[in-house]
C-alpha cells in the first residue's frame, strides 16, 4: 500500500489528482484541501506529511495579477510553504512532487525551454514559484521532483476553455490574444502524468529533478480558441485575433514559453500527447460537453454567419 497526500485537493488539478489516485490499485489517498491543511503552517505541514509515502503539492497561489499586488503573500504559498513540505518530506522519507509553472521563464526564446534552462521570471507569480522550485532542489535533492506545467484547464475550476465556451453561448464574437504562445494542458492528462511519476519515484525508478508536464505542440491563445470552437461544433470565424496590448494586465506575461520534454526520456514514462488531442478528449467530459452543447444551441440566435473551417 502506497500512502499519498494531495495538497490543494479541492482545486482544479487537485480534484483530478484525487480521481486518478482513486483508480489506482494499492493507493491510500489523503485529500487535503485548504480547510484541512494550511500549507503555510510549518507545524501543520509536518504533521500532515507524516505517515505518507508520496506528497503531490497542488496547493498554490494561482492569481497571476493578484500576485503583483501581494507578492509576499504569493511567495508564502508558492515558495515558503513548499520549503515546509520539502523539509517534512526530508524528515519522513517521503517523495515530493511539486507542481510549478512555465512562468519561471522569461519567454524570450524562439526555441523550447529545456528542463535545465535558465529561469528569468518577468512577474511576481513566476518569482514566487521559482522560490518553491529552489526549495525542493535545495532541501530534498534525492526525493524531490519539480514538474512545470502551463495553460491549465479542467472541469473543476475557472479556466480559459470554460470561459470561451461560456462566452460562445452569449456573444457573437470573441476577441482573443494572438501574440502569446504556449502549451494548453488538460488537468486530467497532467494528473495522470504526476501519478505515474510519483509511483515510479517511490519505486526508485526515476531520477529526481525537474520535468516539464505540458502537452505536445504549441499554439497561441487565439489558436487554442479557434481549435476549441471547431472541435465543439462552433464557427471558428467567431474568434477574432487581437494583440496582447489590447488587454493590458497588472502582471506582464512571458510572450513564448514553450517547454521541451527531453527529461522524460530518462524515466521510461511517456510525455503527454498533443494539445489538440487533449482538447478533443476534454470536450467529451460532462462539464465541458454541457458548455459546448449550450453554445451550439445558442449560436443560431447570435447573428453569426457560419463559415467553413478546416
CATH fold-level name of the domain at 2-151 and 184-216 and 259-273: Rossmann fold
State which percent range the strand residues make up. Answer: 15-25%
Percent range for helical residues? 25-40%
What is the tally of beta strands?
Answer: 12
- Name the helix and strand elements from N-terminus to C-terminus, one letter apiece: EHEHEHHEHEEHEEEHEEHEHH
What structural class do the secondary elements suggest? alpha/beta
- How many helices? 10
Q: Determine the CATH superfamily of the domain at 2-151 and 184-216 and 259-273.
A: NAD(P)-binding Rossmann-like Domain
CATH class of the domain at 2-151 and 184-216 and 259-273: Alpha Beta
Task: Give me some keywords for this one.
310 residues; alpha/beta; Rossmann fold; 12 strands; globular; dTDP-4-dehydrorhamnose reductase; oxidoreductase
Architecture overview:
Helix 5 links the parallel strand 4 and strand 5. Strands 2-1-3-4-5-10 form a 6-stranded parallel β-sheet, with helices on both faces. It has 10 helices and 12 strands. With 310 residues, it is of the alpha/beta class. Residues 306-310 have low confidence and may be disordered. It has a domain at 2-151 and 184-216 and 259-273: NAD(P)-binding Rossmann-like Domain (Rossmann fold, 3-Layer(aba) Sandwich).
